[in-house]
């Protein structure tokens, strides 16, 4: 799941704010990433977890589903919905074509900002990176510097893209 999350972190701001010409293969990648997110939702409904109070592994499907629904499910569901398909009835490339051909005013093009909802999935990236940190057996200070640097780059990327858009 790290690769689709990194894709969202890098490509989503570029596609929203710079409005590049989208090739059909980019639409395919977008649909693949969306499919990965939907598969992740299904996997989360089936994944056991450790109860923090007893440190026992919980394998009861109802308890797993309850924990997920009251936890990250809403964020995952909102971030997994392909907004472009609902706005235009087609993929992201049609949004680019419509904004160019119809010369839509800037206020209507702000509908493209709905794609930022996919960035909500980035909150999961922190957990994945912590697992990589633990498995890599690196010094905690080095891992902390890596995490701060990574999130600084993500924040700068989003900020720079927004600045360009304005």
UniProtKB/TrEMBL annotation:
The chain crosses the membrane at residues 31-49, 69-87, 145-165. It is found in: Membrane. SUPFAM superfamilies: Voltage-gated potassium channels (SSF81324). InterPro entries: Ion_trans_dom. This is Ion transport domain-containing protein. Residues 1-157 form the Ion transport domain. Keywords: Membrane, Transmembrane, Transmembrane helix. It comes from Cafeteria roenbergensis (Marine flagellate). GO terms for molecular function: monoatomic ion channel activity. GO terms for cellular component: membrane. PANTHER family: CHROMOSOME UNDETERMINED SCAFFOLD_10, WHOLE GENOME SHOTGUN SEQUENCE (PTHR47823:SF9), ION_TRANS DOMAIN-CONTAINING PROTEIN (PTHR47823). It is a multi-pass membrane protein. It holds the Pfam family Ion_trans.
């Amino acid at each position: 799941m790290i690769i689709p999350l990194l894709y969202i972190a890098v490509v989503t701001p570029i596609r929203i704010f710079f409005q590049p010409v989208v090739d059909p293969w980019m639409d395919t990648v977008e649909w693949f990433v969306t499919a990965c997110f939907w598969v992740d939702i299904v996997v989360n409904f089936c994944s056991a977890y450790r109860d923090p109070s007893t440190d026992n592994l919980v394998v009861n499907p109802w308890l797993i589903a309850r924990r997920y629904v009251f936890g990250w499910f809403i964020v995952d569901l909102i971030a997994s919905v392909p907004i472009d398909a609902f706005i235009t009835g087609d993929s992201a490339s049609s949004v680019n074509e419509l904004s160019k051909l119809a010369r839509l005013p800037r206020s209507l093009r702000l509908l493209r900002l709905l794609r930022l909802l996919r960035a909500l999935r980035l909150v999961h990236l922190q957990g994945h990176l912590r697992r990589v940190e633990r498995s890599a057996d690196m010094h905690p200070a080095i891992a902390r510097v890596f995490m701060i640097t990574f999130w600084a780059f993500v924040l700068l990327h989003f900020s720079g893209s927004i600045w360009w858009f304005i």
